[in-house]
Amino acid sequence: MILIGENINIMNKKIKSAMNERKKEIIQKIAIESKNNGMDYLDLNIGPARKDGPFLMEWIIKAVREVCDLPLSLDTTNAEALKVGLEMEGERAIINSIQATEERMEELLPLVKKYNCKFIGLLLGKEGMPRDENERGAIAANFLAKIDEYGIPHENVYFDPIVLPVRFQQEQVVSVIEFMKMFNELFPDCNSTCGLSNVSNGALNELRGLINRTYLVILLKYGMKSAIVDAYDKELISLVRGEKENIKNLIWKAMNEEINLSDLNEEERNYVKTVNILLGKSIYSDSYLKL
Length: 291
Known about the structure:
By secondary structure, the protein is α/β, with parallel strands linked by helices. The chain has a domain at about 1-90. About 50% of the residues lie in helices and about 15% in strands. The chain has eleven helices and eight strands. The protein has helices spanning about 15-20, 25-35, 55-65, 80-90, 100-115, 135-150, 170-185, 205-220, 235-240, 245-255, 265-280, and strands at about 1-10, 40-45, 70-75, 95-100, 120, 155-160, 190, 225-230. Helix 4 links the parallel strand 3 and strand 4. Helix 3 (about 55-65) runs parallel beside helix 4 and helix 8 packs parallel to helix 9. The mean pLDDT is about 95.
């Protein structure tokens, strides 16, 4: 699985300040640590960057390139900033992301074609958030038809079914799983990805890592090819890299059968309880581990 480090993100106050004040050392430290922790890509999220997007994109890429050679995911809604990044990075880059609307597809798919780069296709259409796995499939099919018009190779496509918080949208968390069950049959030549940390948004801080890790292992079971993740969650990385096979296999077992919790240690019980939450077998509450 390809892991994309999420931590250079303007939504973080410290990172926003570093970008605004052009303090490259803060950005560079995260880039170095993300690579050392096992990331395959870095996501550079500069947000809308309406005032100085192109200049900010050039600055941040140059800052990262002084210390890190990982390929980059360019994360901005500013098309002009994106063009600057693609000029610098070319086919190594991933565009994060292109929404499944006519306006965004017509604006950005020509860039994908020109630079022969990869991109994340966000399954958010003109009617907004898909309601279930079937709508996700329909949006992806329409998106792929547009992609084919531009002659873009399917292997450059990473569909993102949009992960929502289990605390508020538990049925949508299940819907993404159901979508992934049919993904490889419907779109065998395309890839998949997700913004993993969204699934734990709003949950207690002590629960977030557990929820993220469990959900990623579930999605991995159904062929998820990549994910945008916390580069500092070393347990998550070890799960994906095959270093905690006992936990991974327990999660996969709990997806299909009832597990006797009394036979497990505390860590194992917590993972099984989290599986039940993410599959909709139990109703989410902040105290679900205590029940």
